Amino acid sequence: MIDTDLNSYKTMYGPKAANSSFTIGMNNNGGGFALQKDYIPDQDVYIGYEEDGCIHCLPYFLQQVANLSESFVKKEEPFGENQISCFSSDEIKRNLSIATDTFEARKMKYEIFTSSSGVPDPVTADITILKNELLPAILSRLTIDNRNGVKSIRGFFAISPIKGKILLSEAKEDALVGIASIEGYGFATTKNSNVHEFGEFDLCDFIKRDKPIPFQLAPIGGIYFDVPAGGCVSVDIALGFFKGEVVTAGTCFCKYYYTNYFHDLVDVLRYALEIKESKITESKKASKEFDLLLLNKNRKFIISQAIRCYYASSMLFDDNGTARWVVNEGSYMMMNTFDLTVDHLFFELDKHTWAVKNVLDVFINQYSYEDTVHFYETPEISYKGGISFTHDQGVFNVFSKRGTSSYEITEQDGCFSFMTQEQLCNFVLCSALYVKKTNDVGWLKVNADIMKECLHSMENRDHPDPAHRDGIMDLDSNQCGTKGEITTYDSLDHSLGQARRNLYLGVKCWATYIALEYMMDIINAEEKNAAKNQALKCADTISKFFDERLRYIPAILNGVDQSAIIPAIEGLIYPFLLGRKDAISDSGAYSSFILALKNHFNTVLRKGCCLFEDFGWKLSANSTNSWISKIFLCQFVAENVLEIDMVDKNLYDQAHALWWKVGCPANPGIDQIFSGTQNLSNFHYPRGITSYLWMIH
Question: 561 Cβ partners below 8 Å, 6+ apart?
């Protein structure tokens, strides 16, 4: 059996709402600082100590610029000797938890502290609390233990290359020692007589000097401190980020919200060190409580990675005095991609519910549109459609013009076509769960007409003639031209990618009608019965497509397709969270529907169909591309909604954890995984936060 305690994988550590991170963790690979980047950087990160003329450090570097000085001076002798000894995998003891990550090897320990708490509502939060939570910095601690030593040794933390190196000991006469980059990131500790800055072309030169120098031209920048024989020294290092200018464009020009509390990077680093004790204590407490949860170690690993990836993609902007919440689609950098918003929902409703309302309001006011629809076979004949919402709100901090996304284009087959039906469902589902969580009836009443429009738009996409409606989408948006709509599963085969008559989307439409019924009941709207009737029709239609010979429901409800998929059950999460036990019971009004989905799932989750040989879940039997965030969601539904006895649960969790640890170790949180691996590098993604469901239910 593969060792599930393997520790060579990258993890992103970042502050909340600042679109920034610091990354290390994969052997013989780089990492470092990223600020508004669509990839994980490949800086060399040097953390360790020097003893007896040899450097001992963590193996998170490639020494990519070690010989840069030769561009200045031609050397007859080779540049430097190999005096670096990396700790082996066997020596490194790593302990990743929800808010702490610790690396121990020989005489060193390096700890990184992050936050797993939510983001306070900028409108109502105490200013000091908001300042502390939006601090664009994290804390770390480097401890060098020389209590058994007979000679003094030297600890260090360094990064290479750092462009535009700034020595913080010289900045504003501040009480900091550290290095910053003109690009907006840096690290520092509190100034004292034992901590110094240094800069070198090669780390090997570091040990040649009795007193290393802060060589500004050289690419390596770091801090060092001496540890006497018999001593043990810990140095707290703040890792900070700052962008003070307007950082968005397009239809909205914003600064980061943290600029209301911090003037520059030095201010950020200084404040981080001032409140370090409370921050570190908070992180340790969160991890201690998390470690006591009754979750297996693989689920704990998955959640710990996922929360960090989510926050690394998060941003809070100041839009002329108004807070604007955005989560990037990882390395794709699309802003508030709606089919991610609906999956981030479970975490956000628990941690920062106000952000859900914030995003929904922007979709209503700026990223909704009206369309007409057509039957795919007769695109020249148009029918009334209705309201829907864009795929996203822009990309790379450039907000799209009203009613458009950065992704969707007309006359496009597959990827980049419109997701009109799915985004309509996503808006309704997010709205209903927001109201359920907050009881914000006032917001719902203000948007009552929007919700009614959503119901009529749902009906119109079913069939223009009410007598022929069966609850399933039959008409494509004219936004697509003569092509067809797609679902969020845009890069999979037709079994999940095609929107029309799709089983996955059909169940999601059923959940949407349940959600509309819930909201119409609250506002005493006569449309409540229409929503209920559509839900009943939808469930009945899907149930009738259960194939007794195949023992599952084919992915395309056309009487021809025989594809098998897991996400048929995904939509059940919404009535479950709405508290509609009657809707998900196998003895209620939808009993035939629920039993059909349960039998469907039990049939397809097997090797040779929707299960890989390693026990990882295969979302579509026709594709090796499996999205891990959706797997976590479907796992939760199978266990907690359908109440299926998952006898192989630990094997499933082990396989999925190893996809991230072994199959894709350079890509934190990556979602699209092909047969357990991925050929991308330094790619990250936030949607694995669906795993948070395991913590709250």
Answer: 495, 554, 555
